[in-house]
């Protein structure tokens, strides 16, 4: 797993942006596919998620995800809810220990949050729709609702599809420009007429910085280009593959991180 420098400084939390490496899945899902919504063998996916949970020092049932639907909806978590009948949302916050809140991605931007006092954590899935409609802003507000102070919140932007690989059409460009003309700086023209390359991680990073939180770190790894370490929805689509795996990004409150 990959850790962010600003989050690793907080001894009361554990976190990780997990890659696709080190699991049990085969074929197009090889190897650490954690996507409950994939067509991979369900029992294998659960074994992979167990690896993530134990890596964070938790029991398998203490790792939870939600039913992501590209929204700005945030869920305040008070207890673990298992792996079926998941509530809909694209971000979670909690002040409860022994619960790892996690988001699944395969090109979209994962963001992990923690307040510097180690009392509240958050996790957000920011696709272009959720990012534009304010999923990260809503996550910060939900953390404040649990007692976090905005100026003490740290956020880490995880591996996602980069601006070198994310081509979008004119309607997506227009949506960002209509929201704020300054968003033009996150686009550059592609080789196709009327199309653009969108740097979504940079947009998310900038939006977090503008929110006035304590610190923002970006892990600049491209899920599309780095096939060895990451799943990519767009790469699988370009290849005509029938499905794709998902990696997890997770964070939890608890005792000090293991050393060694």
Please describe what this structure looks like.
The structure is a single chain. By secondary structure, the chain is an alpha+beta fold. It has a single domain (5-160, 214-253), classed as CNF1/YfiH-like putative cysteine hydrolases (4-Layer Sandwich). 24% of the residues lie in helices and 22% in strands. The chain has 7 helices and 13 strands. The strands form 3 sheets. The protein has a 6-stranded mixed sheet. It has a 4-stranded mixed sheet with strand order 1-13-5-2. The longest helix is centred in the N-terminal third of the chain and has 14 residues, at 42-55. 47% of the residues are buried.
Number of helices: 7
Regarding CATH, which class? Answer: Alpha Beta
- SSE sequence, one letter per element: HEHEEEEEEHHEEHEEHEHE
In which range does the helix fraction lie? 10-25%
Compute the CA-based radius of gyration: 17 Å
How far apart are the termini?
Answer: 15 Å
* Biggest pleated sheet: 6 strands, mixed
* Rounded average pLDDT: 96
Structural class: alpha+beta
Strand arrangement, major sheet? 3-4-7-6-8-12
Spell out the blueprint of helices and strands:
Blueprint: H1 5-8, E1 13-17, H2 42-55, E2 63-64, E3 74-77, E4 91-94, E5 100-105, E6 109-115, E7 121-126, H3 128-133, H4 135-145, E8 153-157, E9 167-168, H5 170-179, E10 187-189, E11 196-198, H6 200-210, E12 215-218, H7 233-239, E13 247-253
């Amino acid at each position: 797993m990959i850790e962010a420098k600003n989050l690793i400084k907080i001894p009361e939390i554990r976190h990780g942006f997990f890659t696709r490496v080190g699991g049990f899945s085969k074929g197009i899902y090889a190897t650490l596919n954690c996507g409950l919504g994939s067509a991979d063998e369900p029992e294998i996916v659960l074994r992979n998620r167990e690896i993530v949970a134990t890596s964070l020092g938790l029991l398998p049932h203490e790792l939870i995800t939600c039913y992501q639907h590209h929204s700005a909806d945030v869920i305040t978590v008070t207890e673990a809810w298992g792996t079926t009948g998941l509530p809909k949302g694209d971000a979670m916050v909690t002040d409860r220990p022994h619960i790892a809140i996690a988001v699944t991605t395969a090109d979209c931007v994962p963001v992990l949050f923690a307040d510097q006092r180690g009392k509240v954590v958050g996790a957000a899935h920011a696709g272009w729709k959720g990012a534009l409609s304010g999923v990260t802003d809503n996550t910060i507000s939900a953390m404040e609702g649990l007692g976090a102070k905005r100026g003490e919140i740290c956020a880490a932007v995880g591996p996602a599809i980069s601006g070198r690989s994310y081509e979008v059409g004119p309607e997506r460009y227009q949506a960002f420009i209509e929201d704020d003309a300054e968003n033009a700086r996150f686009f550059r023209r592609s080789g196709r007429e009327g199309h653009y390359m969108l740097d979504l991680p940079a947009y998310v990073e900038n939006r977090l910085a503008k929110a006035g939180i304590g610190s923002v770190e970006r892990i600049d790894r491209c899920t599309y280009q780095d096939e060895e370490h990451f799943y990519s929805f767009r790469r699988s689509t370009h290849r005509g593959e029938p499905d794709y795996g998902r990696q997890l990004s997770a964070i939890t409150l608890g005792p000090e991180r293991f050393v060694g």
